[in-house]
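Customer escalation, tier 2.

The customer says the design service returned an amino acid string that "doesn't look like it belongs to this structure." They asked us to rerun it and document both sides in this ticket. The original structure tokens are below, unchanged.
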């Protein structure tokens, strides 16, 4: 495979910004991404997910309570006020804490919101969240961005309902990628937990099948790229936020995250740089409405 980044930049689909992992997109790239998003959203509407919208920043305290700063400090990004004070200002005005961090995965703001609602209904809850996400991992590869969009479905409820949700969404996601004629595979995976204790967490996550990924060759055939993730968090978030079922037990949670830029890149990689020339069945899935 040739260098995807060069091809996409030369075709005017992506614009370099001078910062690795931060890319501008053309109208055509966005049109395709939006159509992929519509296809994903259709499944969420059918499942009667409650759509909620959050900004791409959230409270540092809340992200800390979600455990993110312990598990992934290397990826986290905090917002500060003005770093270089204007001439003549007080020296202690140099850096002001905003108390905000970039949202690293669309699902994180859901837990504080849910906690504030009180006990869950017996059949739990299902959310649809679409958000810009940020992870501090600069890379030249277009499939590894620092700033990207994730469309997530989050199920909170009885362990058996949550497990069944993840199972059925793995099947539905595979159908979406099949309908887009993208070669894909479901694999067991793990998150990039930080440090030595992180390695233990990663191997336990694998052993217990807590994370699956739907991978598609994007940059190369050897290391296919995770375009969609299926994470079973058990009671990790619900204990942190004391989210309980009406019988008093802690709920479980799972999330399914579609990587919007990665799926769009996969389409350009496999079907070519001109969507007008994509296979008719792929076009009919994406451009029917
Ligand atoms: P996870 O939370 O499982 O790491 O990520 C969920 C989904 O977000 C992934 O399956 C992937 O599609 C997308 N994603 C994760 N990291 C990146 C990244 O660095 N760049 C892009 N474009 N998408 C990512
Ligand atoms: Zn998530």
């Amino acid at each position: 495979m040739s260098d995807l980044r060069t091809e996409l930049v030369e075709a005017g689909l992506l614009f370099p910004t001078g910062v690795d992992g931060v890319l501008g997109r053309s109208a055509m790239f966005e049109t395709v991404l939006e159509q992929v998003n519509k296809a994903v959203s259709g499944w969420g509407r059918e499942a009667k997910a409650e759509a909620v919208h959050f900004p791409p920043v959230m409270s540092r305290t809340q992200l800390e309570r979600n455990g993110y700063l312990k598990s992934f400090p290397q990826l986290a990004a905090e917002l500060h006020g003005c770093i270089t004070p204007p001439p003549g200002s007080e020296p202690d005005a140099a850096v002001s804490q905003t108390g905000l961090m970039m949202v690293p995965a669309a699902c994180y703001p859901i837990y504080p919101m849910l906690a504030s609602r009180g006990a869950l209904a017996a059949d739990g809850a299902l959310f649809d969240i679409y958000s810009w996400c940020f992870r501090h991992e600069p890379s030249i590869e277009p499939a590894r961005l620092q700033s990207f969009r994730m469309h997530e479905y989050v199920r909170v409820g009885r362990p058996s309902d949550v497990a069944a949700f993840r199972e059925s969404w793995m099947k539905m996601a595979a159908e979406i990628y099949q309908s887009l004629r993208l070669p894909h595979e479901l694999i067991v995976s793990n998150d990039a937990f930080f440090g030595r204790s992180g390695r233990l967490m990663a191997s336990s996550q694998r052993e217990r099948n807590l994370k699956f990924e739907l991978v598609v060759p994007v940059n190369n055939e050897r290391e296919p790229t995770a375009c969609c993730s299926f994470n079973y968090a058990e009671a990790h978030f619900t204990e942190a936020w004391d989210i309980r079922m009406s019988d008093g037990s802690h709920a479980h949670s799972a999330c399914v995250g579609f990587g919007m830029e990665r799926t769009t890149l996969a389409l350009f990689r496999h079907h070519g740089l001109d969507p007008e020339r994509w296979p008719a069945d792929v076009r009919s899935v994406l451009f029917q409405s």
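Tier 2 assessment: The sequence is consistent with the input. The first strand starts at residue 14 and ends at 16. The chain has a mean pLDDT of 95. Sent an explanation to the customer and offered a walkthrough call.
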